Fold this sequence. Notes:
It comes from Rivihabitans pingtungensis. This protein is α/β, with parallel strands linked by helices.
Amino acid sequence: MKAPVRVAVTGAAGQIGYALLFRIASGEMLGKDQPVILQLLDLPQAQAAVKGVMMELEDCAFPLLAGMVASDDPNVAFKDADYAILVGARPRSKGMERKDLLEANGAIFTVQGKALNDHASRNVKVLVVGNPANTNAYIAMKSAPDLPAKNFTAMLRLDHNRALSQLAAKTGKAVADIENMAVWGNHSPTMYADYRFATIGGESVKQMINDDVWNSDVFLPTVGKRGAAIIEARGLSSAASAANAAIDHIHDWALGTNGKWVTMGIPSDGSYGIPEGVMFGFPVTCANGEYTIVQGLEIDEFSRGRINVTLNELEEERAGVAHLLG
Ligand code: NAX
């Protein structure tokens, strides 16, 4: 058996936490041969609920669960963490302006970034789920100057998976057979889900669908507003599908994609004209614990327009938190 790895999860008492922790402990994220120690962070007032989740985790008697720690202190929860999934964030309350939301989350993610900087493994892989995910990941990255910037990522995988399932429904094909799907930009309704390169059994999905109006008027709004549609239907925001996307993201980053494209929010290296450092959704492949941006894709006029919209939104968010980063 391998030595256990430490997985820190914030917002552990929340609804995504509840859908996430049991799957991590059962080995779905890092493999059925990889023991894990869970290090759970939540606010002081949520500690009783965290204890309850830990009791349930115990009651599953997961063979791979090698230990658990609960804390309200990021310096404790991130100690020696090999993975950190940052789910807890300040939700937008009634009447709260976007600026206030950025500010409140800025306060959380500067502290957590610094705690990762000071206490986590130097190879820690960080995934930010809590919204606004890209900008929160950017803040954490900037607050952790001693860790490699590439270790910080934001979750675009839910958008990617949502796009795959819309394409499967439209073409009548199996979701598993769709290759080369990409999502660009911010995890927000401005994200650009791009199926121009997607194939099913070697055939072009764009040619199969052959309907640009469906792309712009049905597909993109459906994927972009899916989160709102779930809230409308369920009365609560996406939780199990968000947890599933987090599992997929870390699984693929750690264990590789065998050449398959997935989407990750990562600090740009300047590819495709996205300014360096912007936390942006790109199509990537993963191998040996590293991700690589898929290069050489043609960006047509429609795509450039969409990419610019989502980039502008991220640049505005980045400007909105600049004063927090010194
Ligand atoms: P919940 O409100 O159910 O749970 C959030 C938990 O985080 C609570 O237990 C709360 O006490 C805790 N928390 C708040 N501030 C904290 C802090 N500073 N340190 C540690 N814990 C803290 O929300 P849930 O439905 O689980 O959603 C969590 C986050 O995921 C939200 O920001 C939400 O917007 C975001 N999402 C992101 C998605 C993505 O694709 N990137 C999709 C799903 C989801 O909307």
